[in-house]
């Protein structure tokens, strides 16, 4: 492959924004993929998700043609249909009757055209997206504190910091490459300290020198208490405060009244006084401190105020925008920041200009040559779907996201979409919970086939480049939007031929009327060679004829408020609502090897082995009180909905709190979509949902039997609990559990097995043993098999895969009871080398006492390294 050129692109998953380089052949087959050694975000490292990208490029789940009312149509017909429907809706009900719901996985250019079409030409501002669910509280905090939505620090600060505080983030799983950067710096400099604040003892917390198991939702008390502590111990940076910060007098007063002393803070946060004092002492004494924070802080009814409380502590000590110090908000999605740069939020215009600023409106309307620019902010995500539900919004265009799974109170979202007169969905995948309710489906190009730019958590703009030929009729999102704009009568303003033209327009606008008043300025990139553009951090200036990025902001004391001073903001705790007495608090979050609603990572066998079933983690005391045992199914229920999850009883969970992953949709499990149980409570300033603040009751489920189905096709399952995941050779495994007894196995399972009518069926049952097995083949080829046991353990499904390739397989050996003796290795911990939990535990029992020795013996942890924190946890346990 030495003769093939490398194509440099960017990972489509988390906001770390790792550079990737790939080689593909002329037929569009991917030959090689690895971390880009020259990308500043990762210097060649990738996590298990990035490494498994080749497994997610299969086309069999793709949406490949436009569809209107369930029928495949031409692009001409689909685009005309959308344009005419939008014209009719706006004509009849006005611009506020239309909404766009976008995605942090869109490229900046897609976002730009969507925002321009809606705010510049449709004339409404109902433009929001799934970034609302992960970033908006940080945006409010940044705007309030710095006068602009800017992240002051950069990743290099992680290499330099003496103290890293991780608040509300399982960084080891959600931003693994950044976490490796922290752990590697600690290895090189043993005196450095890691503090982790999280209700769960996560893989990140296992690595901490000081772990604070904080009560869910109580973070703001801890940070108010820290500001008070810094105040009474005279830790302020007097010069910095005097010259560069405007202090709201109430900020210090409120901090001291809500968190008077460490005893009060300990009581309110569920921590020990000793731990609170240790944390405060470390923070006060360490100048080079970085605070990483993520969804545990932001997804809260106090999200914006907690972000401000963190920023206050850094501003008060002058630890901002200097090497090795500052707050760093970790972005959940690859391009949430790019979306904000172009104004894809309902209160923004473009290039960090504000919709409620008449001067900004003038600049943008002139630049876009529009006389119908929106004049007032639109609806935020949760409000937008509520407006769909009550009929105010009559046409909704959803692009590249799956709100039926990711938004809170998902049953209400389902009802809203079901009654909406026009739901348009642009997506890569044919079958999602959301596409099931669409009137129009538009096939978009996925990662690998599309080109554009993205911005990561440290303001670094990188190119995503196409390296595969487009499949089917799929088109870039910007092209689809521009075509609709042209058909709505705005041809001159949407006449883009290439994606680079859009980037240049966006870059040019960022410099107009700016003069240093707005943080976001990339005008110096308007003239660069777009195809060859290198990763660069905004703001960008022209220096000696070359564009130069800026790693840090705020260290020089220059902020973006009218007086150029930062703000120490007065904040106070919000109110949480427990909708059930005696209920348990439900925390939701990410798994290491899954992403969003699994539409891409769910296709990867390697990634599916880490957590193949939807689990519920709970403390042993809560398990005992609720009659729940390890491994049993549990009904998790409140007034909004219910889910059935597999119990994992663990002391890593706080008593009174539960954890469930947020990834599972109806496509991957019958009853595990967790947002059905989360109320639509939001932060009052940011509108970000409090996705970690549901309250639920638990009911143990009697499991009458268990089993699995291996099949080459997707099937519709009813009458059983199920979840599915990808295996090798295009086989799907459905894990099954009987919440009702079955009396006639053959008859009652027949509906699960879709055949062509030409199959040969082979059955084996042993009523006394409570065992039923069935296989079916066509022309000698095994098409599927079903294994059910009432009591006995099941064989390891992976051991049966060889039967799917072997033309000579014998039914007796497939269905024989001997298969039951094959030992299962449990879930896979090391995705790169396929090392199971069982194999690791065996090696640990036989004397391996370090990650290094396990790596030597089993190769575990020697690939991308994402599993190292988990292996370390197993060694400690
Ligand atoms: Fe992709 Fe992993 Fe890097 Fe995130 S940390 S950008 S998921 S490779």
Task: Give an overview of the whole structure.
- The protein is α/β, with parallel strands linked by helices and 877 residues long.
- The strands form nine sheets. The chain has a seven-stranded mixed sheet, with helices on both faces. It has a six-stranded mixed β-barrel with strand order 23-27-24-26-25-28.
- Strand 20 and strand 21 (546-548) form a beta hairpin.
- It is globular.
- The two termini are 44 Å apart.
- The model is unreliable at 817-824 (pLDDT under 50).
- Bound molecules: iron/sulfur cluster.
- Iron/sulfur cluster binds at residues 11, 13-14, 16-18, 42, 46-47, 49-50, 175-177.
How would you summarize the topology of this molecule?
Blueprint lengths: L6 E4 L8 E6 L5 E6 L12 H4 L15 E2 L2 E2 L2 H19 L4 E5 L5 H15 L4 E3 L6 H11 L9 H5 L2 E5 L3 H4 L1 H13 L4 E5 L5 H4 L3 E3 L6 H14 L5 H7 E3 L1 H10 L3 H8 L3 H13 L3 E5 L1 H4 L4 H14 L9 E4 L6 H6 L16 H11 L12 H9 L5 E5 L3 H4 L3 H10 L2 E6 L12 E4 L8 E4 L4 E5 L12 H11 L11 H13 L24 E2 L3 E3 L2 E3 L17 E3 L15 E6 L15 H4 L6 E4 L1 H6 L7 E5 L4 E8 L7 E5 L32 E7 L4 E7 L9 E6 L5 E7 L6 H5 L10 E7 L4 E8 L2 E9 L21 H5 L12 E3 L4 E2 H9 L5 H8 L9 H9 L1
Parallel strand pairs: 6-7, 6-14, 8-9, 8-12, 9-10, 11-22, 12-13, 14-15, 15-16, 23-27, 24-26
Antiparallel strand pairs: 1-2, 2-3, 4-5, 4-16, 17-18, 18-19, 20-21, 23-28, 24-27, 25-26, 25-28, 29-31, 29-34, 30-31, 32-33, 33-34, 35-36
Helix pairs in contact: 2-21, 3-21, 3-22, 4-15, 9-11, 9-12, 9-13, 9-15, 12-13, 18-20
